[in-house]
Amino acid sequence: MFNFTLRPRRNKSAETAKERLQILLAHERADGESPDYLPMLQKEILEVIQRHLAVNQDHVEIKIDRERDISALEINIEIPGPAAKA
Amino acid sequence: MFNFTLRPRRNKSAETAKERLQILLAHERADGESPDYLPMLQKEILEVIQRHLAVNQDHVEIKIDRERDISALEINIEIPGPAAKA
Lengths: 86, 86
Known about the structure:
homodimer, alpha+beta, 3-stranded antiparallel sheet, 2 helices, 22% helix, 40% strand
């Protein structure tokens, strides 16, 4: 069972200039043998995001979890907020 | 607070030939005025998926939720499993 909660930032002021983008991809397969699409989707979805947002690779965190029928991929990206860019 | 749980299918046998892809995008903004990236990301991420998977629009479910600082987009896609394609 995959559970994903977007935790609001504890210390609002210190991180006010930053924004967060969180992406969860979960693929529930019919049986354990069918292909796992997540690696390919991960690469192309990151490319989509990088086309539109200034993404610093140091601020990209990727977690992958695989069970028999389900694979899940969590991507956390910290992006400079409007104040940070000005 | 956004909470997203991938619920395993109740009746495994009836839906064995189908697979599910679930995508959650959550954008936590620095302040309520910064742009909302989700509509643009939704379009392009669906295009990525459709490039690689046979997606029937009738089997795509999209939920959007907006609060002051956080927007969340949930995309649920039922895709034909290997047995269904053969």
